[in-house]
Structure formats: C-alpha cells, structure tokens
Specification:
Layout: E1 11-12, E2 18-19, E3 23-25, E4 31-33, E5 35-37, H1 46-57, H2 61-82, H3 85-93, H4 98-102, E6 105-114, E7 122-130, E8 138-143, E9 147-152, E10 169-175
Parallel strand pairs: 5-6
Antiparallel strand pairs: 1-2, 2-5, 3-4, 6-7, 7-8, 8-9, 9-10
Length: 180
C-alpha cells in the first residue's frame, strides 16, 4: 500500500469505503473536507484513485472560478422549479460574482470512485449543499480529478457521458488543468 501523506489517516469504514480525516482543499480556499475512497488501498485501483484525489487537491481558486458558469446554470435550473420569476431574478442577482455564488455553496465531502460505464477510470465527486438545493445538494463530477463532466444532484451515480439529455452534462468536459 503506497499512501501519499495526505491520506495517512485513511481508515476502513463499515460501508466498505476508506475515509480520511478532513483535509484542506485549495479549491474551497483551504476548507477541510473528508475524503472517502471506494478503492481498497491494497488493491489494483488504488494508485489511480489516489492520483485523481491528488490532482483534485492541486486545483485552486482559478479552477473554481472556471466551474462557476456551470454552477450558476445549476442554480438557475433548480430555481426555475421552486421560485416565481421575481424571486429567481433576486436570487440570481445575489450570485453575480463567483465569490457571491460560491458563498452559497457549502462543501461537504469528497468521494473517489469509479463509474459503471468506465470502471477503470477514477472519478472525484465533490458533494456540496447549495442554498438553492438543500434537499438533494449538488455534486461536481470530475473525471480523473480534473475534467469537469457533470454538475448534478449529490449521488453516487455517474451517468454515461454520452447521455446528452442528462441535466448538468458538461460537454465537452472542462479540463481544469488546462489554461483558460
């Protein structure tokens, strides 16, 4: 088992996942979040899962700002169902800058798992609780830890990237390691 020092606190949970103590996440300004891994640290998928998590941990404020238009789109999509037009416009006006938008998003945890559609590829799922979707939350789905492919409700399900009808699909994926 080759553990990066960030994941030294890794412990097996009752549900079979492997979890860490909260780690500072630069994407969220250093806010500490727990990480949970589907892959067994002694298994063949560990190196890829750990690499995806480390890649996500390398993303900072600039990457978060690049994700903002997709989060704003999720906000608009959800508000259309729960607000009248006036309230929706007020809430959207309060989220015009990336700072104002992200102030309405509380990060909860980071999960690293594979998809049934691509079992060999690790995905980082960032579960959050935004003010506009407190029942289901919102997750950022990052293929390999840096390619934004979905912004959708919190779930362990990762839809096929070919499902163009799926709400929240980012097509083509947004590579957060590439310069803007």
């Amino acid at each position: 088992m080759d553990l990066h020092p960030h994941f030294a606190s890794l412990e097996r949970q009752e549900d079979g996942w492997w979890a860490t103590e909260p780690l500072p996440v630069p994407f969220f300004g250093g806010e500490a979040l727990p990480f949970a891994f589907e892959a067994d640290p002694a298994g063949e998928k560990w190196a890829q899962a750990q690499a995806a998590a480390l890649t996500f941990l390398s993303l900072g404020q600039q990457a978060r700002e690049r994700v903002s238009p997709f989060v704003l789109s999720d906000m608009r999509f959800n508000l259309e169902y729960v607000c009248d037009e006036e309230e929706m416009e007020e809430r959207l006006a309060a989220a015009q800058s990336p700072e104002d938008l992200w102030a309405q998003v509380t990060p909860r945890e980071v999960l690293v798992c594979s998809s049934s559609n691509e079992p060999e590829v690790p995905y980082v799922l960032v579960h959050t609780l935004p003010t506009w979707e407190e029942e289901h939350g919102m997750q950022l789905v990052l293929r390999l830890g840096h390619q934004l492919v979905y912004v959708m409700p919190n779930d362990l399900y990762i839809p096929a990237l070919t499902d163009t009808e799926q709400h929240g699909l980012v097509s083509p994926p947004l590579d957060l390691l590439a310069s803007s």
